[in-house]
Write a structure and sequence with these properties.
Length: 307
């Protein structure tokens, strides 16, 4: 056989070291490959003494015997479809040439995981409205970590809890607070099927902190007991927060609909007077920055004032 212009079998057939190479094969890393994947091939040369050598200690050449299933360029194997591809490996060490073959299974790409949420959240909001519902969302990923299109998939779901009900359109109707356990089976158009279960919480509000950890909360409470400036700061924060808590309904009513246009300027962006007050002729951008307006949603709702 000629490799890089050298006929190894003719030139080196009698050139044998004390421990010549006796055989070779191939492995892939990672050790699973799915259709559409590309992976690196590593030779597994073995000396006559039985010692396994590292792949980079030899010159190695790989050939695919089933190019319709997978091809090889250098040491990169690219899979096109499921099946068994036979890899012919040639290893050269100290002038000795050996060949071996290895069969590698190409697996079908499919669903490896399912995730369930209630409209994108792990919490189902319980309200006083009898017919309030939230859709059950299911996402699936394949072997490559890509999200699978489930628009044509059959999704069958059921709940094992009395805290919610779920209809044939995968709409969740909360009944009472607690945990809701769901079983979901997804069947793709090609017949591949996967099932999973998930537990979501039904709650009227937050059930635990979502920003500060329990350890941080414990430290803050300890500091409040023992450090004077922390205690004073706490009292100041509570006083400032109370005036908003007392006006929650007022603040909620101030949120405008999406139909009302928004602007931070007094004119179009291309208007040279876009940030000049029409009353005092002050360049507000130059003097106060991009958001100069004074506002007090409780004392002066719906009003802004030139600084």
């Amino acid at each position: 056989m000629t490799i890089n212009g050298v006929d190894y079998e003719k030139e080196f057939s009698v050139f044998v070291k004390d421990d010549p190479i006796a055989g070779t094969g191939a492995i892939i890393r990672p050790d699973e490959i799915y259709e559409g994947d590309s992976v690196r091939l590593y030779a597994t040369p073995v000396l006559q003494s039985g010692r396994t050598m590292s792949s980079d200690s030899c010159e190695n050449y790989f050939v695919s015997k089933n190019k319709d299933i997978a091809t090889i360029e250098g040491d990169i194997l690219t899979a096109y479809k499921t099946g068994t591809v036979t890899i012919e490996v040639t290893s050269v060490f100290n002038g000795n040439v050996v060949r071996g073959t290895t069969d590698i299974e190409i697996e079908e790409a499919g669903m490896t995981s399912l995730s369930i949420t209630a409209g994108g959240s792990k919490i189902i909001r319980l309200t006083d409205k009898e017919y309030d519902s939230v859709p059950l969302y299911v996402t699936a990923t394949d072997n490559h970590g890509n999200e699978i299109d489930l628009s044509d998939a059959e999704i069958v779901s059921e709940t094992l809890s009395d805290t919610v009900t779920i209809d044939g359109n995968n709409e969740i109707y909360p009944i009472s607070e607690g945990e809701a356990v769901f079983n979901v089976t997804v069947t793709l158009p090609n017949g591949r099927m996967r099932s999973t279960s998930a537990t979501l919480r039904v709650s009227r509000g937050k059930s635990k902190s979502t920003y500060y950890t329990p350890e941080e909360i414990a430290i803050a409470r300890e500091n409040y007991k023992n450090v004077d400036w922390v205690k004073n700061t706490y009292k100041s924060y509570i006083a400032n927060a109370d005036k908003y808590v007392e006006n929650c309904d007022v603040l909620y009513s101030l949120i405008p609909s999406e139909g009302i246009p928004r602007a931070i300027c007094l004119g179009e962006y291309t208007d040279p007077l876009a940030y000049v007050c029409r009353y005092c002729n002050t360049d507000l951008m130059a003097k106060f920055g991009q958001f100069p307006w004074l506002h007090s949603p409780i004392q002066r709702p719906w009003k802004i004032q030139c600084p």
